[in-house]
Specification:
By secondary structure, this protein is an alpha+beta fold. It is built from five helices and 14 strands.
Length: about 260
């Protein structure tokens, strides 16, 4: 059955079978994959089980409806590196880890067909964002040249539950934009791209204030643009529908996001 939430988003209520699949996905995260699946982070990028509050963060999206989210502009800094990895903090050329507050990003992608909402399996999910000082990798801009570096970029392929996870850092800021992460979902038939969806993810300003008061973020000074002053965030009120669900963990934050995609 299709409904709308209080923000006007289209919602497809999951069937009994789909709710069971979502529950099994959650049990997989905190059970069989629990030793590596969240919530604390170590320097090696491998997870360890956290406390009950962290486990609750994993349980939050277990039975949520399938929400169709808005697309947003790709921006100038997408580079199709074809770099498959879950820990995107490092530059693979030097193995140097970008400093910043650790962030575990867990996304679940659903296919929406009419009133049906099912996990989207085999989708390529790319994420990329700036470092703590506002720099993107492998691009040349007016104020920096990072060509040849590939930090804070990578993709994962959704599993049978439509799930991917990334280990990264909380992004910094650059002039004119609020804090955000870019993402792209693609499907391929061999080398032929058959579907593409691009959008951005956002952060609660109050949490960003806390993070950016810490080094190395605070060496850049206070940011000049918050969510409500960002032209992309505020366009058609789309940014409010793309806010991450953030939970504090021992060494940083866990962010979860679920998205339904209409494939036609």
């Amino acid at each position: 059955m299709t409904q709308t939430d209080h923000s006007g988003n289209r919602i497809v209520a999951p069937s009994k079978t789909e709710r069971l699949l979502n529950r099994r996905a959650t049990l997989r995260l905190i059970g069989g994959a629990g030793a590596t699946a969240l919530v604390g982070l170590s320097d090696s990028g491998k997870g360890r089980l956290g406390d009950d509050a962290h486990a609750a963060a994993l349980l939050t999206p277990a039975q949520i409806p399938c929400v169709v989210r808005p697309s947003q502009t790709e921006g100038p800094f997408f580079v199709d590196e074809r770099l498959e990895r879950s820990d995107i903090r490092t530059d693979p050329m030097t193995n140097m880890v970008k400093p910043g507050v650790p962030l575990r990003l867990a996304m679940t992608v659903y296919r929406v067909d009419g009133s049906a909402c099912t996990p989207l399996t085999g989708a390529y999910v790319d994420v990329w964002h700036c470092d703590a000082l506002g720099l993107y990798s492998d691009v040349r801009d007016r104020s920096f040249d990072t060509r040849g570096q590939m930090f804070l970029r990578g993709y994962q392929i959704t599993d049978q539950n439509g799930h991917v996870e990334f280990i990264t850092i909380y992004p910094g800021w650059y002039s004119g934009r609020t804090v955000h992460i870019h993402f792209k979902v693609r499907l391929f038939a061999g080398t032929q791209r058959t579907f593409e969806f691009t959008s951005q993810l956002y952060f609660d300003d109050a949490i960003t204030d806390v993070v950016h008061a810490q080094p190395p973020y605070n060496t850049k000074g206070p940011r000049d643009t918050r969510n409500n002053r960002d032209g992309i965030y505020t366009q058609n009120n789309s940014g409010a529908q793309l806010l991450l669900n953030l939970n504090k963990c021992v060494e940083g934050y866990v962010a979860t996001f679920d998205i339904g995609l209409r494939m036609s």
